Amino acid sequence: MDIVFAGTPDVAVPALEALAESEHRIRAVLTRPDAPVGRRRVLTPSPVKTRALELGLDVIEADRLRGEVIARLRELQVDAVAVVAYGAIAGPAALATARLGWFNLHFSLLPAYRGAAPVQRALIDGLDRSGVSVFRIDTGMDTGPVLRRRELDLGHPDVSSALEDYARRGAHELVAAFDDLAAGTAHETPQTGSSSHAEKITAADARLDLTAPVGRVIDRVRGTSPSPGPWVELDGKRTKLFGLSRAPEVTASAEAGTLTSWNGAPVLRCGDGWVHIAEIQPFGKPRMAAADFLHGHGDIRFDHHTDQGA
Prior knowledge:
This protein is an alpha/beta fold. It folds into 2 domains: 2-198, Rossmann fold, CATH 3.40.50.170; 203-301, Methionyl-tRNA Fmet Formyltransferase, Chain A, domain 2 (Roll). It is 25% helix and 27% strand. It contains 8 helices and 20 strands. It has helices spanning 13-20, 47-54, 68-76, 92-95, 118-124, 159-183, 214-223, 290-297; strands at 2-7, 25-31, 35-37, 42-44, 59-61, 80-84, 101-106, 114-115, 129-136, 146-153, 197-198, 231-234, 237-242, 245-246, 258-262, 265-269, 274-276, 279-281, 288-289, 300-301. The protein has a 7-stranded mixed β-sheet with strand order 5-2-1-6-7-9-10, with helices on both faces. Strands 14-17-16-15-20 form a 5-stranded antiparallel β-sheet. Strand 16 and strand 17 (274-276) form a beta hairpin. Helix 1 runs parallel beside helix 6 (159-183) and helix 5 (118-124) packs antiparallel against helix 7.
């Protein structure tokens, strides 16, 4: 088939590469415009744009699907559009530009975790299994019928490793779905069962409730690492924590939120046990080893925060 690929971040690159290596023909790549990155706000192309140019593909840049972009897509007269984390809503006019429609690779088993952050929310919720779905885009929020779905493990230590794994495995499912579309054998199944919404992760989502059980704390760490990164407050100021892991061997007693040392290693008390902590970044200061921080301050207790949504 003749297709357009629409995507923007790193997580979309494996699918672009897989489709470029398939029997389908990518007529153009649709991605969001160059954006400022870093403290110096250097204008930087999206990872998808960078890879598309390396592959010699035409690139269309747009943050909204309307006007000239719609006209350009119509001129291409493609059979279908493949979407992976493009970052803009395709309305009826855009969806009508491809003969067979637009199809999205989503990183959950729909209808669970519809929305912007399915993997992050699943990790925070403590799931050990999730998956990927390829579905037809309609005018709802991730509500269209599913062509392919694959259940996958979710035992990853953080969002980065989970998304890298799901992007790679999902790319194969997307190509298979397009192979089925080309052959006329694609089967579309309406979504059934309970739905849930995965809202975009904010800094507030990364705040740790140290009165919660260790398992819940670790789940929130996994779901917010490496970005925006787990944090707590010390004397009312945000303090970032890095390298948290379970410490079942620690038997000391202390109030939740206490940072101390056990056999020479920094440990942090949660509601029902302890976690190791590798590094810490106090507000306005550079990141440092947690052991060095303890040497300079002695035992401390972070401010209490209760996650009312837990």
